[in-house]
Structures are given as structure tokens and as C-alpha cells.
């Protein structure tokens, strides 16, 4: 009986490990990849209506808790059974564990919105759990074999009732007094105190492995689960939000903003395709209903603003292209979105910055900070907002839900703080943003740049009329002209699409008459201040890449 209980315990510990490992990986892969609730949802979806009604009738609003409890009991029974099976009839226990985990993999990967990697956490958990179960069962058998080898201890379960003196073997192999074998031990012979020392070692090997597995699984599993629960709660809260409409709508993106060329970046970047850069290992879970923003530091009047305060203000809408300072020439760490928010300028006017303040240090819930020049945020002609909406939706969680900063014309690292909770008025002498002590410039105005999108790298180009097209940007300044050069030819003007304003990128196209052979095409932009992109190549650090984007094409 005792061995059976230990075998069941090994099964339970292994199953706990499967769930805990899946839960921990789901912290990074996304809370929706956690198998726990996926299985629950699958059961709810598959349950016949009659059963659903019955459960609701019996448990009322506690129906979900009842379901989860029932599922928990079933999983625990199956886990114990897997332990018993693996101990008695290896590898059937592992097979059972894989089977049950397989159902969970099926549940996660068939949920609506499941991605290609949704099953990964459960699969990794399953493999680790199977290996653990095998190992624990092996150790249990080793212990059992050692314990039952000596006839005197043939019935380990009853050892406690057996007078210890009948087993005169030293309790401790390393005991320094082997000459006095009968030395009365004060510690009663433990239940698993076989004649041979090896039995004790085997016993310890099993108990430690099982104990460590169980404790680690419960500990890590509970922490990971609560993180995943918070993330799911925020996702649900976000989906429930309806944003107010803008008091000042954006200039509509003109029909002519989109050249309609295959392979060219679309004028507005869909949220799902928008590049994401941050230092957050796990996306912070901030609920709008508990969010608040403080304006602190060198101000006459500290201000605190809740989500309801913020969305009650007359919001503005602005199309702004956001770029990362780490974007290489030709890179894709840039995107254009329609942002809904409230001008920071207005809030600063309420807080009344003290003389001498020249930096607004925006601080995120995750500790990230960005140092933005105060005068930029006070400039009445500059878009600088606390954004709550992105392309008509609440900010996606990974893009800063519920509130982030967006400032036109500055790289993200010095302006675009996501999950923002504080604006501290300070000075560039006193303070620095997150990236400045890490080798990046304190100031980060966006550099005027242009990029070739088509023909794509490696595309086969046929001789004849071929569009060369891409995007160019100089946020807050605007693009004046884009030119293309083929081989050693002259710079030729590209045709510019329309834009909603100077804060966004612009599509451009050059109608090229491609001739057979290898060619090199380059692009350069001139902004409305009259500056033409330098050919001098600079890498992103410390203040943004520069140089002409060039692509080699072979035409046949
Ligand atoms: N909280 C927080 N905000 C942040 C960052 C960060 O690491 N943490 N990275 C910044 C950088 S470097 C960039 S380029 C932009 C990217 O914003 P996105 O991920 O929405 O594209 O966010 C900025 N805001
Ligand atoms: Mo960035």
C-alpha cells in the first residue's frame, strides 16, 4: 500500500511539473497559451447543452469554479494513475501522461486566435513531465528493491512495529563506531530503514526528487499562474473598453496616400504588424481602471490623472510615424499609426513647470524612462500626446495599454514611453532616460531617411517597366523630395504619394525601365528644411543610423 501511495505521489508531482512548466513558458509565450483554461474552455464548448444547463442549475454563478474543481479532481486521479502505472508497468504511465497532456495541447491549439506556437508551453511541459515520471518511477523501484532485499525488512510498511534491535546493522554507514553494532539508537528505525545502507540512499534519492519536483512545481506554477491570470484579465478589460471619439479628428488619410504597389509598406501600419521594441521580458499588465498618471518634480502644482479623467478630456487624433533609433538603414523598426490622445502640453500648463526645468522624464510601470525636452512638449505646433488609442482601438497591451506617450519627430527611446505612469519635470543635468547611460544620446531627433521596399530582396525582375518604390520620413519636418539613382546614372525624382501631414512617412515610386544585367539602385530624401540625406554611413548608436539605402538587383 505504501509503495502505491508513493507511486501515486510521483505521478502527481510529475503532472504538477507539466502544468507548472507550461504555465511558466506561457508567461513569455502569452497567457492564452496556458493549457489550464484552454482545457476548461474546450470542455465548456464540447459539453452538450443539457449538461451545461444542469451545471448552471446546480452551481449557479459558481459553475466555472465547479467545472475547474471537477477538472482538477479528474486530472489528479489520472496523474496518480499514471504514477501507479509507470511504477508497475513502465512505460504505460508515461503513455497516459502523454495522452492527457496531448488533449491539453489539442485544447490550446484549437482555441480561437491560437497561433503556431500556442502548443509549445504544453508540449515542453509534457516532455519534461514524462522524463520526470520515468525517473521518479525508476527511483521508487530502486528504493523498493533495496528495501525488500533483506528478509528482515521484507515488510517495510510494518517496520515501525518491528523492534529495531532485530536489525543490528549500523543505522549510519559512516558511523564511526562500527565495533558497537548494538549501540542503541535513539532514533527509532525509520519506516524505510532497511538493513543495507543502499536502501536509505535509494529512499532519499526518490524522496528528494519527488519533493523537489512537487515543491518547485507548486511554487513556480502558482507565481506563473497569477502572472498569466493578470495578463488575461488586462486583455479582457482592454476588450471591454470603448474609446471616446476624438473631439479633434485627424485629417483623413487621403486616398492618394496608398500607391497600391505590391510589397510596399502600407501607409497605415496595422497594429498586428507594428514593430515592437521594449525592455519588458513580460508585457506589463496595467488595468485602465486602476491606472493613474502623476505629474511631479519641478512643478508648481502636482497633478494626478485617472483613466476616467483622461478619456473625459477632449481627445485629439494624429497620424504619427514612430521610429526606433536602432533601425538600420533599410530596416523595419518603424511604423505609422493613427493615435488618439490628449496633448501633454495642456497638462503641463496645468502643472506649471518651474523655471530651470528642461526635461520631462516619463516613467513606465516597468521602470523604463525616457527624457524628452520640455520645450518640445510645450511647443504648440508639435504633436506630443498621452495616447490611449492606436488605429481606432485601445492601445494593444504590448504597445503600452492603457496609456503611452507619442511625440512626433523623436525616436521612441527618448519619447514614446509605454505603460506610462509618471511625468517628472527635471533637468538634463540632473536626470537621464533609460538608454542614455547605456551609450545612446540624451537627445534623439529622428533623422531624415528613406527606404526601398520593392523590388524585394531576391525578387526576379524582368526587363521592362518596373516600379522601384518605398517610404521616406522626416517626422515633424516633412519630406520634400525623394530621388533614385540607378548604377552611376543621375539622381532622378521619384513620385511622392499624398500624406495626412508632415508627421508621417510618405510612399514614393520611381518608374524604372529595367535593362538586363546587374544593377545597383539607391535612394535619398530631402526634407522640407532643405536637408538632403547624407551618404555618410553611421550605425544606429548613439543617435540613429544614416546613409543611403542601396539594393542590388539582377534583371533578366
Ligand atoms: N515602457 C517602455 N516603453 C518604451 C520602451 C521600453 O523599453 N519600455 N521602448 C521604447 C522604444 S526604444 C521604442 S522604439 C518604442 C517602440 O514602441 P512600440 O513597441 O509600440 O513600437 O517604445 C518606447 N517605449
Ligand atoms: Mo527604440
Automatic annotation (TrEMBL):
Matching entries from PANTHER family are given as: SULFITE OXIDASE, MITOCHONDRIAL, SULFITE REDUCTASE
InterPro entries registered for this protein in UniProt: Ig_E-set, OxRdtase_Mopterin-bd_dom, OxRdtase_Mopterin-bd_sf
**Protein's organism:** Herbiconiux gentiana
One matching Pfam family is Oxidored_molyb
Q: Output this protein's name.
A: Molybdopterin-dependent oxidoreductase
Identify the residues that the record assigns to the Oxidoreductase molybdopterin-binding domain, covering every copy: 281-435
Q: Where do the segments described as Disordered lie?
A: 154-197, 527-556
The reply to whether Membrane figures as a keyword in the UniProt entry is yes
Q: What is the lineage of its organism?
A: Bacteria, Bacillati, Actinomycetota, Actinomycetes, Micrococcales
Does the keyword section mention rRNA-binding? no
Amino acid at each position: 500500500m505504501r509503495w502505491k501511495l508513493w507511486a501515486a505521489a510521483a505521478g502527481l508531482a510529475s503532472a504538477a511539473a507539466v502544468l507548472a512548466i507550461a504555465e511558466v513558458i506561457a508567461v513569455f509565450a502569452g497567457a492564452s497559451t496556458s493549457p489550464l483554461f484552454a482545457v476548461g474552455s474546450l470542455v465548456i464548448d464540447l459539453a452538450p447543452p443539457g449538461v451545461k444547463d444542469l451545471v448552471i442549475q446546480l452551481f449557479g454563478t459558481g459553475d466555472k469554479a465547479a467545472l475547474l474543481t471537477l477538472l482538477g479532481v479528474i486530472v489528479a486521479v489520472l496523474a496518480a494513475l499514471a504514477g501507479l502505472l509507470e511504477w508497475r508497468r513502465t512505460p504505460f504511465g508515461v503513455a497516459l501522461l502523454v495522452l492527457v497532456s496531448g488533449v491539453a495541447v489539442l485544447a490550446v491549439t484549437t482555441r480561437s486566435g491560437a497561433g503556431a506556437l500556442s502548443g509549445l508551453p504544453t508540449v515542453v511541459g509534457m516532455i519534461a513531465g514524462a522524463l520526470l515520471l520515468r525517473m521518479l518511477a525508476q527511483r521508487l523501484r530502486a528504493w523498493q528493491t533495496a528495501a525488500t532485499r533483506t528478509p528482515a525488512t521484507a515488510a517495510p510498511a510494518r517496520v515501525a512495529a518491528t523492534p529495531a534491535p532485530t536489525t543490528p546493522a549500523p543505522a549510519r554507514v559512516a558511523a564511526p563506531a562500527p565495533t558497537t553494532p548494538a549501540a542503541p539508537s535513539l532514533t527509532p528505525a525509520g519506516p524505510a530503514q532497511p538493513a543495507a545502507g543502499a536502501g536509505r540512499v535509494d529512499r532519499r534519492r526518490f524522496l528528494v526528487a519527488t519533493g523537489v519536483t512537487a515543491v518547485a512545481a507548486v511554487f513556480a506554477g502558482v507565481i506563473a499562474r497569477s502572472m498569466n491570470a493578470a495578463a488575461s484579465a488586462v486583455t479582457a478589460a482592454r476588450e471591454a473598453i470603448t474609446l471616446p471619439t476624438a473631439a479633434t479628428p485627424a485629417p483623413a488619410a487621403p486616398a492618394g496616400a496608398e500607391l497600391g504597389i505590391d510589397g510596399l509598406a502600407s501607409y497605415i501600419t496595422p497594429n498586428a504588424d507594428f514593430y515592437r521594441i521594449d525592455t519588458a521580458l513580460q508585457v506589463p499588465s496595467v488595468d485602465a481602471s486602476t491606472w493613474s498618471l502623476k505629474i511631479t518634480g519641478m512643478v508648481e502644482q502636482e497633478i494626478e490623472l485617472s483613466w476616467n479623467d483622461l478619456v473625459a478630456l477632449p481627445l485629439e487624433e494624429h497620424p504619427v510615424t514612430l521610429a526606433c533609433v536602432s533601425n538600420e538603414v533599410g530596416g523595419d523598426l518603424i511604423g505609422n499609426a493613427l493615435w488618439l490622445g490628449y496633448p501633454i502640453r495642456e497638462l503641463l500648463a496645468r502643472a506649471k513647470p518651474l523655471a530651470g526645468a528642461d526635461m520631462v522624464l516619463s516613467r513606465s510601470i516597468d521602470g523604463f524612462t525616457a527624457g524628452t525636452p520640455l520645450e518640445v512638449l510645450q511647443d504648440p505646433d508639435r504633436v506630443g500626446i498621452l495616447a490611449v488609442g492606436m488605429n481606432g482601438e485601445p492601445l494593444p497591451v504590448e504597445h503600452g495599454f492603457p496609456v503611452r506617450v507619442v511625440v512626433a519627430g523623436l525616436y521612441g527611446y527618448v519619447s514614446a514611453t509605454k505603460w506610462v505612469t509618471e511625468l517628472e519635470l527635471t533637468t538634463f543635468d540632473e536626470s537621464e532616460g533609460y538608454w542614455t547611460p547605456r551609450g545612446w544620446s540624451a537627445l534623439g531627433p529622428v533623422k531624415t531617411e528613406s527606404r526601398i521596399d520593392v523590388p524585394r530582396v531576391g525578387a526576379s525582375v524582368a526587363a521592362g517597366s518596373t516600379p522601384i518604390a518605398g517610404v521616406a520620413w522626416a517626422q515633424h519636418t516633412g519630406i520634400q523630395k525623394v530621388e533614385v539613382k540607378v548604377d552611376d546614372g543621375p539622381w532622378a525624382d521619384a513620385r511622392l504619394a499624398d500624406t495626412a501631414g508632415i508627421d508621417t512617412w510618405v510612399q514614393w515610386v520611381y518608374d524604372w525601365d529595367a535593362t538586363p544585367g546587374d544593377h545597383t539602385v539607391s535612394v535619398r530624401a530631402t526634407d522640407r528644411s532643405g536637408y538632403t540625406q547624407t551618404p555618410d554611413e553611421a550605425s544606429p548608436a548613439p543617435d540613429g543610423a544614416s546613409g543611403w539605402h542601396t539594393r542590388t538587383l539582377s534583371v533578366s
